[in-house]
């Protein structure tokens, strides 16, 4: 796995590089500005980019803009975005798009090495990884949905893990239940949210968005 890092905090940038190299991963470039990052993407054609949301010069959304441009230049590039805070609009849009090969983690998650590496590999393998703390904050900000009140606590746990990008096997392992139990919970979630298998939508993504849709306009 070839990785480019875009992070203006030198300590975090070099710490990430050391961590990933210690895991046998190939960090081909570390950069501190969006311009340097795009040059590195063009030059090295990485498999994954790890990008800070807020970068110079304004420290607003430069990292997100650069990540989008990098994916246009290199289709299929996996991007794991890091942020010190919950960037609500980006996190919600990530889920709305049902985006493949994209992840969003809070920087504090990097210190939990196993979780960070799991998210990195999930994104590199074509999945989506969203920080559970991000999901929790977005859910807390959402307006209530009456249909969601019908879900049991276990079904809500399953739905939250679905939102983090976990597949059924991973959800079963996290909740210490069988994969069959997870399938049963997901079927129940779809039924209670009136998501018909005949509908031409991704029911899994739509179920997650029922939690998050109201945050789009806040």
TrEMBL record:
- Which GO molecular function entries does the Swiss-Prot or TrEMBL record give? DNA binding
> Where is the PTM 4-aspartylphosphate found along the chain?
52
One GO BP on record is: regulation of DNA-templated transcription
* Key words of the record: DNA-binding, Phosphoprotein, Transcription, Transcription regulation
> Which domain of life does the protein's organism represent?
Bacteria
Give residue ranges for domain Response regulatory: 2-122
Q: Which Pfam families match?
A: GerE (PF00196), Response_reg (PF00072)
Q: Where is the HTH luxR-type domain?
A: 144-211
Q: What is this protein called?
A: LuxR family two component transcriptional regulator
Query: What species is this protein from?
Result: Actinoplanes italicus
């Amino acid at each position: 796995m070839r990785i480019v890092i875009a992070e203006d905090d030198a300590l975090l940038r070099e710490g990430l590089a050391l961590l990933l190299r210690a895991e046998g991963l190939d960090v081909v470039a570390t950069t501190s500005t969006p311009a340097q990052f795009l040059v590195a993407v063009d030059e090295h054609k990485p498999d994954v980019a790890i990008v800070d949301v807020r970068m110079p010069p304004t420290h607003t959304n430069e990292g997100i803009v650069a990540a989008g441009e990098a994916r246009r230049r290199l289709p299929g590039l996996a991007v794991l975005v890091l942020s010190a805070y919950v960037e609500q609009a980006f996190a919600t849009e990530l889920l709305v798009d049902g985006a493949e090969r994209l992840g969003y983690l809070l920087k504090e998650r990097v210190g939990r090495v196993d979780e960070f590496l799991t998210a990195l590999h999930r994104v590199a393998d074509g999945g989506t990884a969203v920080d559970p703390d991000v999901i929790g904050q977005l859910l807390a900000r959402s307006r209530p949905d009456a249909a969601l009140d019908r879900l049991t606590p276990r079904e809500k746990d399953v739905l939250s893990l679905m939102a983090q990008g976990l597949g059924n096997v991973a959800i079963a392992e996290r909740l210490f239940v069988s994969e069959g139990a997870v399938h049963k919970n997901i079927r129940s979630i779809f039924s209670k949210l009136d998501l018909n298998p005949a509908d031409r939508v991704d029911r899994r993504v739509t179920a997650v968005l029922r939690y998050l849709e109201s945050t789009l306009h806040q």
